[in-house]
Design goal:
By secondary structure, the protein is of the alpha+beta class. It is built from five helices and four strands. About 45% of the residues lie in helices and about 20% in strands. Helix 1 packs across helix 3 and helix 3 packs across helix 4. The chain starts with 14 loop residues before the first helix and ends with a strand.
């Protein structure tokens, strides 16, 4: 139970690697938030441009993969607070503009939660 005396160098993660970390592992950050919203009957979707921008923001912070959680939580804070109390929300789409804080995430509503025709808010 000691330290392994091996020294190796690692390349820095690039934007593509961070997007993979966000989406591909079994317990990926995006999947965690999708599961949380799914408990309220809401489908969470991230546009590809939004995922790339989240990765770019983590690169700017120079925090690597650890910074992904803080960036995503900053985007999802209002969504996680507001969506469960709103009626007939069937889908939430995180767009590039919502990552840039230019607009709120797109909320799609339906006549009955999870069923029927969708209407955009």
């Amino acid at each position: 139970i000691g330290r392994v005396p091996v020294v190796c160098t690692l390349d820095a993660l690039d934007e593509e690697a961070l997007v993979q970390i966000l989406t591909e592992p079994k317990n990926a950050l995006v999947k965690q938030f999708q599961k949380l919203l799914n408990m309220d009957g809401v489908v969470l979707e991230f546009e590809p441009d939004a995922l790339r921008l989240i990765a770019a923001k983590a690169l700017e912070q120079k925090t690597g993969a650890r910074g992904l959680r803080s960036v995503v939580e900053g985007i999802m804070l209002d969504v996680m607070y507001n969506v469960p109390s709103e009626e007939h929300v069937s889908k939430c789409v995180i767009t590039r503009a919502s990552v840039e804080k230019e607009e709120q995430p797109l909320i799609v509503r339906s006549k009955t939660k999870g069923k029927g025709k969708e209407e955009s808010a």
